[in-house]
Specification:
alpha+beta, rbstp2171
Length: 276
Amino acid sequence: MTQKTIRPEEDAERASQMAAQVIEEASSSGNEQEPPKVDPVPDGTVDLPGGLHTIHGFVREAEVSEMTGLVEEKISKPGLTKNIGKFITELVHACTVRIGDDENPSKDLIRSLCIGDREAMLVGIRTATYGNTFDLRVECPVCRHEYGLMYELDKDVPYKRIEEDEHEFDVELRRGKTARMRITTGYDQEYVAGLESKSVAERNNEMLAKVVNSIDGEPVISVNQIKALGSSDIRTMLVELDERQPGPQFEKVTQECPSCEEESPLVVSLMDLFRG
């Protein structure tokens, strides 16, 4: 049987009726195929687990964008990758749309964020660039079994959130002393990361000299004041500083081995996040 062809330019009304009929029959057919599901593009909004005081008040939200090829070139310079603090500042600055109401924030504003907020924004940039998940090859530290797994940033990583009044805190030291401290910021991170020629103990003392505001009410203005403290007090302050830091808690992620069923830490570094 020969099927008659209707040309729209010859009979527009009839062609329109036939097209409508085809669509109706397809939609009522039991064999219709569902459209493919497409993952939604992240909107780039990041909740700041620490928060920041700005001229507009205390803010809890930032917006980031994906990393472009131009940004990737910029952050791959050899000198920059030697200082993790500066590396994070450059990457976050290049990909931040706004912090609160501050659009295109300056590097100084990025540096004033606490480390946990900077890491939360890195997670947001990673998600906007490559997605929320990535595959890992893991070796069990107990039985040495090697296996693969899918790491999901929104489900696997716990976050610690602090309130506005928790950016500064008191730490009880020995002999009845009290240290007044604050949360570590990007400024501190850049400074200490630049002391690669110094020992771990020296870098720790320099860090504490930055974040300890006072000891028994006396302002800390020199690293020598930290060095004069007992090793136990220094360790106490370092532990307290680490435990109070907000942000993604990568070190608390664990995984059960499918072979021996032993649970062990699943260590992921910030650099691991940017493997496509």
